[in-house]
C-alpha cells in the first residue's frame, strides 16, 4: 500500500505574528502550492533524499545559488524531527506502534523561505502519512502542537502555532491563542470562516527576498522577552485586527478588510526591521491601489484588489521587481 499525503501552503491574513505571543490571527490555506509525501512499507526505515538534500554541485556558483534559494538543511532533518515527535506522542499516550518500517519520499512546490510555511507543510504531511500507516489518530486540535514541537524542540526554530493550525484545518480559520486558554488546554480556540465570503485576493512572492522565518522573528522575541512595553502593546494591536477582520469578512466589507491588512503591516514595521526590498514589494502593490501585508516572515505579500484591471496592474508592476503574482486558491 502506498500512502499519499499532502499539506498546503498558508498565508497569514491578519494578526501575524501575534500567534507566538498569545495573540489572534486569521490565516488561509492555499492549494496553489503544497508538500507531498509518499510512504510505503519497506524492510528498513528510509528517508529518500531529494534535490534540496544534495551535497554534490556543478560548481561553487551552483552551491551558492542553491543555498540562497533553499537554505542549508533540505527536507531530511525536518522529516526526521516529525517522525521523532510522532513517536514521542505515541509513547507519551501509551500507543504501541506496529513492528513495521517504511520508506518516505517527499516533494514540495511551496516557494522556500518566503513566509508560506513550507517547512511546517512537510511536517504536517509527514505526520498525516504516519498516522495512516500506523493507524494512529491524533486529535485535530492537538496535531498542530505535535508539528510545532518538531520545529521548536527538535530544531530550535522560533515559531508559533498559526501555520500548523491552518495546515491541519485548511480553509480560512480565526485563531485565538489567549494566555488562559493556552495555559488550561494547551491549544487555542480555532474557528473556521466561510471561504465564500472572502474578497478578491492576490498573492505575490519573490524568492530572492527569502529569509528563515525563525531568524526573522528572533528580533521580536528578544524585545518581548525583555518586557518591552512598546513591542507588547503593538503585538496586542496586531492581534485585535484579527477580531475586526471577522466582522469585515462576515459583512463582506472588503474596503475595511483592506484597511486592516494595511494596518497589520504598518504596525509590524513599528517592532521589526523591514528590508528595503520587502518595502519595495509592499509599496509597489499599494501604489496599484491594492492592500498589502506579509503572508509570513517576508518575501511574499497578500492583499485585496478591486477588479481585473487592478490585478493586471499588479502583475505588470510587480513583474518589474521579479515578483510573481497569483490568485490564491483557498481549499
TrEMBL record:
Keywords: ATP-binding, Kinase, Nucleotide-binding, Transferase. It is an enzyme of class 2 (transferase). Its EC number is 2.7.1.43. Signal peptide: none annotated. One of its GO terms (molecular function) is glucuronokinase activity. It comes from the Bacteria. Residues 246-318 form the GHMP kinase C-terminal domain. Residues 79-171 form the GHMP kinase N-terminal domain. PANTHER family: WITH PUTATIVE URIDYL PYROPHOSPHORYLASE-RELATED. This is Glucuronokinase. The lineage of its organism: Bacteria, Pseudomonadati, Bacteroidota, Sphingobacteriia, Sphingobacteriales.
